[in-house]
């Protein structure tokens, strides 16, 4: 098998692999994907591809200031490139491909397009997989997916399927303020992180409560900023312990609830990314609905990333939409943010041609729950006029019959095959 990044082979229909220094190419297929950790395993049926190849073992997490070597095929040449760098940081970051908040190592070796999926070697073993870099004014800042994340992924494949990286399904607040700690009756020397939301559908809802304070995870003390000491003098997000386990295992949490210390066992039954209000959708075509030239879509991370390159899309995307992505929490399990993404100009939608990226709030006074609900409200309404309100208070009024009749003409004029594309979310 070949270990690489999920984003390297995502959406692929045919994969060829070639060894460095060789010319012959071999067909490969994706055996396992984990989009959240941005890792994938490829299977090559032809045994001779691996003839004379010795495998590399997965090593341990390197330390800050350790020297590593990055292997890959970055743009600018066809031969194997090897660059050296030093581990400068070990901490949780948001992975660019999935948005997941996972452990990463920052290194000062340049990681460019083409490096993705290449091994990062330390002491003759795989310390990580190169997967993203910082550009736009930053020199020699790259990131690798470290060994602990790789080990979790490989163990996950052992039963023949991918369940994902465990997650509690909570959001938390720092307890930096001494007044806040006093309010929740933390004693001198006690620290922790406050649970301020539990996702709908999360199994944790049966065991955890809003306003619980997480004091410890597997007997490791949690600081008021939500970190644990994973090495002497080095801290990262307490989820590091949880993310190293497998779906189906349990985790021991020490809590402060109503001023009393308790300890509970929480089964890990759901994965990272399960409950994102603005999710990334993999391996599927985008959903859309064209109604009289007005294009409606569910808001996804894929949509936001169309606003620029991997390095700068988040700076160019609309502020309101980014706020839903960064700060939005599900209120119920099937909730989706629905946007009016653009208007295909026609006489039936005059006055609204400039609308774009409006977040839809109601249709004829009924709150929109998700994309399918919006389509139902538009198609099943018996009113002559459809009154659509966005979250900024903009009122959009259409004559339903004229919009319906105009739809087919509009999609022909704009050479669009279908007025809608649905799939089950």
Explain the overall architecture.
It is a single chain. This protein is 16% helix and 34% strand. The protein is α+β, with helices and mostly antiparallel strands and 425 residues long. It has three domains: 2-159, Thrombin, subunit H, CATH 2.40.10.120; 170-267, PDZ domain (Pdz3 Domain), CATH 2.30.42.10; 288-421, Alpha-Beta Barrel (N-terminal domain of MutM-like DNA repair proteins). Strands 19, 20, 21, 22, 23, 24, 25 and 26 form an eight-stranded antiparallel β-sheet that branches. A six-stranded antiparallel beta barrel has the order 5-6-7-10-9-8. The two termini are 31 Å apart. The model has no long low-confidence stretch (mean pLDDT 92). Residues 282-419 form the Protease Do-like PDZ domain. Residues 166-268 form the PDZ domain. GO terms for molecular function: serine-type endopeptidase activity.
Describe, in short, the structure shown.
The protein is an alpha+beta fold and 425 residues long.
Share of helix, binned: 10-25%
CATH fold-level assignment of the largest domain: Thrombin, subunit H
Which class do the helix and strand fractions yield?
Answer: alpha+beta
What is the second-level CATH architecture of the largest domain? Beta Barrel
- The radius of gyration is 25 Å
Biggest pleated-sheet summary: 8 strands, antiparallel
Mean pLDDT: 92
Distance between the termini: 31 Å
Q: How many E-type strands?
A: 26
Percent strand equals 25-35%
Total separate domains:
3
Stretches where pLDDT is under 50 for at least 5 consecutive residues are none
Helix segment tally: 9
Quaternary organization:
single chain
**What would CATH call the class of the largest domain?**
Mainly Beta
- Gross morphology is globular
GO molecular function, one term: serine-type endopeptidase activity
Domain PDZ: 166-268
Keywords: Hydrolase, Protease
Domain Protease Do-like PDZ: 282-419
